[in-house]
Specification:
- By secondary structure, the chain is mainly α.
- The protein has a domain at 8-70 and 83-107.
- It is 80% helix and 0% strand.
- The protein contains five helices and no strands.
Length: 141
């Protein structure tokens, strides 16, 4: 039994929907706990997260839509893998919620240079991801 393939339009629609949903969820997870929209660290993080992601999605839509479609449909089948994903999801949620509460309640004071350094590390992580895909899939960058 073969899986049905999405048309290019359906794939674009699904990808844009997921990107927008992800943005909405992150906005809620950062700014609701913070209690303010005046939270520059969260805005910078979201820009660093979504601009490279959007560029890469556009690239995959154009040059490798089959890979993008496979990534959208990926689900873990093994029970132990599903448990790992569930635990990782809880940890990820805490990772995104905790800074907002920290902003609201002033639990810590992180220097600006450290925030910027962390954002640079995130960008380098994206670069590593793209280089890995480039090597594995022999894609053009």
């Amino acid at each position: 039994m073969t899986a049905t393939r999405l048309s290019p339009r359906q794939l674009r629609k699904r990808v844009v929907g997921r990107l927008l949903a992800g943005m909405f969820v992150l906005v809620a997870m950062f700014f609701l706990p913070a209690g303010t929209l005046f939270y520059w660290e969260a805005w910078v993080f979201m820009v660093i997260l979504f601009i490279p992601m959007s560029v890469f999605v556009v690239y995959l839509l154009r040059y490798n839509p089959a890979l993008l479609e496979r990534r959208l449909k990926m689900r873990e089948r093994e029970p132990h893998q599903r448990r790992i994903v569930a635990v990782s999801t809880v940890i990820l949620l805490a990772t995104f919620l905790l800074p907002g509460f920290d902003k609201r309640f002033g639990w810590s004071s992180v220097p600006v240079w450290l925030v910027i350094a962390a954002d640079v590390v995130i960008l380098l992580g994206y670069l590593l991801f793209v280089l890995t895909l480039r090597a594995c899939l022999k894609i053009r960058v």
